[in-house]
Write a structure and sequence with these properties.
It is globular, with a radius of gyration of 16 Å. 27% of the residues lie in helices and 28% in strands. The chain is an alpha/beta fold and 184 residues long. Belongs to the purine/pyrimidine phosphoribosyltransferase family. PyrR subfamily.
């Protein structure tokens, strides 16, 4: 996990690749259990960037567990963020190949921190239609919420200080799986 710290001082390795896989299997089972009566209306939407491969991994788990193909989309929240401060943001674009109206949509992200990303994701998703329900799955919840948002599915709760950061690495985006805490 040498690359995950991005040159910063790594304070702790909190999830290995095997632990990430185990957490995602558990989250997948929890999603299936909670939505058992309406699995045909279930969809996953990964929040760019690392939420997308996590959503695909969860969909793969559900396929293996139940033989069910759950549609997966990618959501770019850039234009819905409240912290752009006049910047010229890079918009990568969303790709949601299904109607969200009437579906139970599980938004997937790597880290839940202040709640602002989740709020922006809900705004972006609601522009595409009115889901029956929106749920939130995160690999890591590090606390320090600024908005009244909580995840429905959490891989691991990691208490952190405001001076620390949580870095998630995934094979698909970073070449390796792992979660580290960096900073003071």
């Amino acid at each position: 996990m040498s690359r995950l710290g991005f040159g910063e001082r790594v304070r702790a390795c909190v999830l290995t690749g095997d632990q990430i896989s185990r957490s995602l299997r558990r989250i997948s089972h929890e999603i299936l259990e909670r939505n058992a009566s309406s699995l045909e209306e279930l969809a996953l939407v990964g929040i760019l960037t690392r939420g997308v491969p996590l959503a695909h991994r969860i969909a793969g788990n559900i396929r293996r567990f139940e033989g069910l193909e759950v549609p997966v989309g990618a959501l770019d929240i850039t234009l819905h963020r409240d912290d752009l401060d006049g910047e010229d943001p890079e918009v990568k674009g969303s790709h949601i190949p299904f109607e969200v109206a009437g579906r139970t949509v599980v938004m997937v992200d790597d880290v839940l921190f202040t709640g602002r990303t989740a709020r922006a994701a809900m705004d972006a998703l609601l522009e595409r239609g009115r889901p029956a329900a929106i749920q939130l799955a995160v690999l890591v919840d590090r606390g320090h919420r600024e908005l009244p948002i909580r995840a429905d599915y959490v891989g691991k709760n990691i208490p952190t200080s405001l001076g620390e950061s949580v870095r998630v690495g995934l094979v698909e985006t970073d070449g390796e799986d792992g979660v580290v805490v960096v900073g003071s």
